[in-house]
Amino acid sequence: MRSRKQTSLGKKIIIWIIGILVLLAITIGFMGYRYFKQALKPLDSKDDTVSQIHVPMGASNKQIGSILERKGIVKSGVVFDYYVKSSNLTGFRAGYYQLKPSMSLKTISKKLQAGGSDQPIQSSSGKLLVREGANIDQIAKEISHTTDFSAASFKKLVNDKTYLAKLEKMYPELLTSAMEAKDVRYRLEGYLYPATYEVKKDTSLQQLVTQMVAQTNLILKPDYAKIKKAKMSVQEMMTLASLIEREGVDQTDRRKMAGALENRIDIDMPLQSDVAVLYAIHRNNKELTVKDLKVDSPYNLYVHPGYGPGPFDSPSKSAIDAVLNPLDRSKKYLYFVANTKTKKVYYAKTFDQHQANIAKYAKDN
Fold first, then answer.
1. Using only C-alpha atoms, what is the Rg of the chain?
2. Could you give all domains of the chain from N- to C-terminal order, each with its CATH number?
3. What pLDDT digit, counting tens, does each position of 76-121 carry?
4. Per-residue pLDDT for 29 more than 60?
5. Please, which residues bridge with residue 346 across strands?
6. Is residue 28 over pLDDT 60?
């Protein structure tokens, strides 16, 4: 039988435990309340960095809150969801929005009710440089670095069938052969002209890409008859130009190289281009191995004769002119190798002559 002293001690322990639990509950409740009150305020009232937020069709308030939290616009998606429900807010619309961490939940909610854009929108004025010889993966990186558009949204757009059909109707001479090509990685590879483009506040991603294609069409407009006379499609001509672009030599040598490549095409000889293999293995600069040269890809022009699926990068006007005005075709050159130090290019009719030139090239280096 317990003594009164033991019973009293047990009661004290129970009271002590209950007291701790009550204090803990009050503390947690107070901290939760503070967090809730804090989450109702702008995430950072001094941060006016604009982020592009995409609200998909049919997204719930909870899903929208998660998107806003993940993008660093609100402190808590759960609190945003509670705020929306407690304020009886409805009618949030799908689309692209320009939002800032400095915005209150009330401001964000009003923007979501007003509706966003159907296409991604650039938030600030800037310039985009598409470099000569840049491929779509490289352009995508540049876009993500210098605009509000993501690399993923850009790469998705340049293969969007609806958008491509619209572009083909606008520029049929330019794009018909590209749309008919098989096994292409990106339909618009080669057709985004290298230049500097102004990206205004209200420029959409679709408008930006259309500018690039329109510029290519403008550059090629005087040459469409010449391309047809050369018995090449625009896709084939642009493919050769994209190979010539990456050689980095003067215009005379570019024209001679174009002549050698066209001589190979005439006899159904593989073009054997390192540029093509690098594109096939998704690399820009790399020492190629024997295994690389055998990679199973339609873009591997060591394995496959002809032009392959299409261009490997964005060629300049000078590379295009070289293909349309080749030099020394009558000399039947099939090979060339450049000395990286002197920039001198050695041409050959036979493989043995080519090997001798390589020996000379290696000696000069």
1. 31
2. 51-114 (3.30.1490.480), 126-221 (no CATH), 225-364 (no CATH)
3. 888 888 888 888 888 899 998 888 899 988 899 999 999 988 888 7
4. no
5. 337
6. no
Tell me: pLDDT of 329 over 70.
yes
Q: What local confidence, expressed as pLDDT, does residue 64 receive?
A: 93
Judge contact between 287 and 107, C-beta under 8 A.
no
Q: What is the predicted pLDDT for the residue at 121?
A: 79
Q: Among 218-222, 223-227, 361-365, where is mean pLDDT lowest?
A: 361-365
